[in-house]
Specification:
Chains A, B: It comes from Amycolatopsis bartoniae. 2 copies of one chain form a homodimer. Chain A has about 375 residues and is mainly α. Chain A has 16 helices and 2 strands. In chain A, about 70% of the residues lie in helices and about 0% in strands. The longest helix of chain A has 29 residues. The radius of gyration of chain A is 20 Å and the shape is flat.
Amino acid sequence: MPARLAHVSPAPSPRAPAEVDFTSLRRRVDAALEEFLEAQARHPVDACLPPLVDVVREFVEGGKRLRPLFCYCGWLAGGGEPGGGPVAKVGAALELFHTFALIHDDVMDRSATRRGRPTVHRVLADRYHGKDREAAARFGVNAAILLGDLCQAWSDELLCAAGERWRRRAEPVLHAMRTQVMVGQYLDLAGEWTEDALDRSWRALRHKTAGYTVERPLQVGAMLADAGPEVLRLCTAYGRPLGEAFQLRDDLLGVFGSPEVTGKPALDDLREGKPTVLMNLAWRRAGSRQRALIRELHGDPALDEAGAERLRDVIRRTGADTAVAELIELKAGQALAALDDVTVPAPARTACADLARAATRRTR
Amino acid sequence: MPARLAHVSPAPSPRAPAEVDFTSLRRRVDAALEEFLEAQARHPVDACLPPLVDVVREFVEGGKRLRPLFCYCGWLAGGGEPGGGPVAKVGAALELFHTFALIHDDVMDRSATRRGRPTVHRVLADRYHGKDREAAARFGVNAAILLGDLCQAWSDELLCAAGERWRRRAEPVLHAMRTQVMVGQYLDLAGEWTEDALDRSWRALRHKTAGYTVERPLQVGAMLADAGPEVLRLCTAYGRPLGEAFQLRDDLLGVFGSPEVTGKPALDDLREGKPTVLMNLAWRRAGSRQRALIRELHGDPALDEAGAERLRDVIRRTGADTAVAELIELKAGQALAALDDVTVPAPARTACADLARAATRRTR
């Protein structure tokens, strides 16, 4: 799950001032989320619920609302009015769905921090009544599985709150999106260095980032605006390569990025043995001694900074990092080029171009 | 999660032949499930999906369709036609939601078997490519979390397939139901013997069984039939005590039942340290030496049959088992009495009465 995507700044670059008001959209998404969560806490089915709502609320706060933002771009591209209409509530539903996905992602990766703060299963472990630390950790994980489940259920409830008309337009894309993210996450589970591992890593990236994070949210926005086939084709032609560039950049940051920028400990991806495209490219190109080193260190939960530096050295020597950086340029270029092929309203074009450029920045 | 509820026979008792055709409803629910899953496997977003659909398909096969059945009772009580109309598809959606809940329940409990077969995380662990057994187990758990997530998403998709009109009628109840089962499961997570443990165990039972398994499915059926307030009141007056009786019986079977009847290893509940009403009553009544024994053995993952027998002996000596058996009689009686207070169509009454009687049978 692309944690570091959350740190792409949605603000326009200084030289191309966007005409799109992301700040106000973000504010409306946050208000819709808060309104929904507040209602859940105000009339709880059980007294245990309000403190759990607070955990969700605090976790949700750190997000940059990337999916609502792409949803808004799709809406504008489809001719929707600049105010955003239903995008705030539907975007809030996307965000709550993403909350579910991140909570479970952190459980699966056993991550300790996210967005610079303790992950949900860690927060919940601290609420265990009792001294047995192992029991507390297990309680935290199980409670986080349930709270994630609840967020998935609630994202659907929030979608209903947006109104029948909007829900019906968005739903077919949302169904595809939900299946796609689970499939992407499944392909992303650590495995062995089998023959098809590189292919699997590409498919994972396409489903969970190109599809789930960019193309589908764009399509949701376009569908809400009742867009024609040309705009829907743009969502794919622009969204897929951009999503790929985003994830490839995320893979690079996971190995070479600094924790202050990413909000995640620097060694998490390497310790978890994430089967990224970057690592698979390195493996493909590695000699037998380099492979032995990857086998030994990649996925070692006790990996230290010295070991990580040895892994980084192998990656650099294979040239996999350069290859990935080139791919990012290429994909971002494809995304930008797609924007020239169709006529879309100016604010949508500016917003999409800014986002494509943001994907190529800060690759270290 | 009440595993053993699945083993309540929905067949009518010999002396009161029901006029309700459960077998044919069950067949239609199964057909709707199969049709949906087949469609997911036929046009997969990725090649990894069809084998995962097969895992769901095999897991789903063993269920007794208790929630669709209650949904059907609610439909009949509300004046729905005996064919069942939308109940087959909506019931299939309930069943797929339950599949999600059970997959995650088994992950949380680390259960090895369900319905006499390996649990989903065990099945998936066997598909791991590699020799590291610990990595395989972790892969199985993570893949099962994702497959459960997918089943929740798909249950909503199946509900849409039932049609706008029916979906809109069922949805408010479904929203409440989803929150309630997560809350019930949360309260059911093993904790310490704190002052409020008995209260928590009652609340868990009320949400996850009385609400999720009986009252809500009844209400869904009643809403589908556009029932009036009197029938909706019946869903609560009959459904809640019946659900409580079901779960209390389940608790007894979890300690005293034979694995051939329950489909679960006899010691699972005790090894997991399930904070049931039964165990909490025993704890309340136990002396200090009995409490020490409960503390030592309840929740011990390595508990053997001799240890289990010592726990059973404590429960018997405190009289907690007798108290629970009496409660079951009382609650089932309340459910039956509620049926006399309103006028509902004869087939619905017969079906409901049969189910209430089934709850009191086979308490050992």
